[in-house]
């Protein structure tokens, strides 16, 4: 075992002990539990503390650090958003029969966190594990047009047919989305697949997420403007409830 691996294993052991303890633990408790030299324990605890994995209390005891709290809060918030949005997604699904999704911005991409499946045999797939470039996704286009995601830069290639999109056209599309209130894609990601999406807002009107409808063009194209207006209405109702949730980072 290399020295680096050994240090990682030792630090992990200390971290597990502190995290699993029912209450903050003292330096002496950590030393006694680990059987390591006091100097080694001191060095490892200091490193874990400096990287946000542990927090040192005023009395010198240790507990889980801010990184764990931030991680838990992020996923708690995602679950809260998904739970709050589910009735809306189900209602839209009943009205349209198409696949309905909730998408959140994360790491420069769109993460699909909730879905109501189409009632048709021919319908859109399960989007939860599918990574769709922002410029080929109605959800992504909404989130970039309204700010949570940055507008893609430079020339972009459309996923379905390889058509090159200029940066100017992306900016123009974003302006249209903001004016209209929803984004539309016609076969941008896959030929024959249409989608429409609208923004969902939280405290202060900040856009938190997007809800979207997707399905075969044979059913979607003629009704896509109607679906867009429906999404705007439903997103507005959902936003009123989500305004009560803490803003991102709080």
TrEMBL record:
Q: Which PROSITE patterns match?
A: HTH_ICLR (PS51077), ICLR_ED (PS51078)
Q: Which GO terms describe its molecular function?
A: DNA binding; DNA-binding transcription factor activity
Q: Which residues form the HTH iclR-type domain?
A: 5-66
Q: Does the keyword Metal-binding apply?
A: no
Q: What is the lineage of its organism?
A: Bacteria, Bacillati, Actinomycetota, Actinomycetes, Micrococcales
Q: SUPFAM superfamilies this protein is in?
A: GAF domain-like, Winged helix' DNA-binding domain
In this chain the IclR-ED domain maps to 67-244
Source species: Brevibacterium yomogidense
Q: Which UniProt keywords apply?
A: DNA-binding, Transcription, Transcription regulation
- Top-level lineage group: Bacteria
Alphabetized InterPro entries for the sequence: GAF-like_dom_sf (IPR029016), HTH_MetabolicPath_Reg (IPR050707), Tscrpt_reg_IclR_C (IPR014757), Tscrpt_reg_IclR_N (IPR005471), WH-like_DNA-bd_sf (IPR036388), WH_DNA-bd_sf (IPR036390)
- Record's protein name: Transcriptional regulator, IclR family
Q: Name one GO biological process term.
A: negative regulation of DNA-templated transcription
């Amino acid at each position: 075992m290399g020295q680096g691996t050994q240090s990682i294993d030792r630090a992990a052991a200390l971290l597990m002990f502190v995290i699993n303890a029912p209450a903050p633990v003292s330096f002496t408790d950590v030393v006694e539990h680990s059987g390591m030299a006091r100097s080694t324990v001191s060095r490892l605890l200091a490193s874990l503390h400096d990287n946000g994995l542990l927090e040192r209390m005023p009395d010198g005891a240790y507990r889980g650090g801010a990184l764990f709290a931030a991680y838990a809060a992020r996923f708690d918030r995602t679950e809260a958003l998904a739970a709050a949005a589910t009735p809306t997604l189900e209602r839209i699904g009943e009205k349209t029969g198409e696949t309905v999704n909730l998408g959140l911005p994360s790491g420069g991409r769109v993460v699909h966190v909730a879905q109501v499946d189409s009632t048709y045999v021919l319908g859109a797939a399960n989007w939860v594990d599918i990574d769709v470039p922002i410029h080929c996704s109605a959800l992504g286009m909404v989130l970039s047009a309204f700010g949570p995601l940055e507008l893609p830069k430079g020339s972009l290639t459309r996923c379905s047919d390889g058509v090159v999109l200029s940066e100017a056209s992306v900016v123009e599309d974003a302006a249209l989305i903001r004016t209209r209130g929803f984004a539309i894609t016609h076969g941008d990601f896959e030929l024959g697949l249409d989608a429409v999406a609208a923004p969902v807002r939280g405290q202060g009107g900040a856009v938190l997420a997007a809800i979207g409808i997707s399905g075969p063009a044979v059913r979607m194209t003629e009704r896509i403007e109607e679906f867009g207006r429906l999404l705007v209405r439903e997103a507005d109702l959902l936003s009123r409830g989500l305004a009560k949730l803490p803003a991102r980072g709080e």
